[in-house]
C-alpha cells in the first residue's frame, strides 16, 4: 500500500510540474544567459572536455 501511495504522489508531482512548465512564457534567446560551474580549469583534461562542449553548445544555439 505504501508503494502505491508513493507512486501516486510521484505521478501527481510530475503532472503538476509539467503544468507549471507549460504555463511559463517563452524566454527570448536574446535575453538568455547560461551559467556553468566547473570544478577545475582548462588544465584538467576531464573538465576541458566539458568546457569545450559548453562553449560549442552555446555558440551553436546563439546563447551567451
**How many H/I helices?**
2
What would the average pLDDT be, to the nearest integer? 78
The sequence of SSEs as H and E is: HH
Low confidence ranges: none
Which percent range fits the helix content? 55-70%
The end-to-end span amounts to: 49 Å
Q: Tell me about the largest β-sheet.
A: none
Per DSSP, what share of the residues sits in E-state strands of 2 or more residues?
Answer: under 5%
Shape: flat
Structural class: mainly alpha
Any overview of this molecule?
- The structure is a single chain.
- 61% of the residues lie in helices and 0% in strands.
- The chain has 64 residues and is mostly helical.
- It is flat and about 50 Å long.
List keywords for this structure.
61% helix, 0% strand, mainly alpha, 64 residues
Task: Set down the secondary structure blueprint.
Elements: H1 2-23, H2 45-61
Amino acid at each position: 500500500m505504501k508503494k502505491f501511495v508513493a507512486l501516486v504522489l510521484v505521478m501527481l508531482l510530475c503532472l503538476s510540474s509539467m503544468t507549471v512548465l507549460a504555463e511559463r512564457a517563452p524566454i527570448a534567446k536574446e535575453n538568455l544567459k547560461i551559467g556553468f560551474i566547473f570544478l577545475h580549469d582548462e588544465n584538467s583534461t576531464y573538465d576541458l572536455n566539458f568546457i569545450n562542449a559548453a562553449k560549442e553548445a552555446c555558440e551553436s544555439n546563439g546563447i551567451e
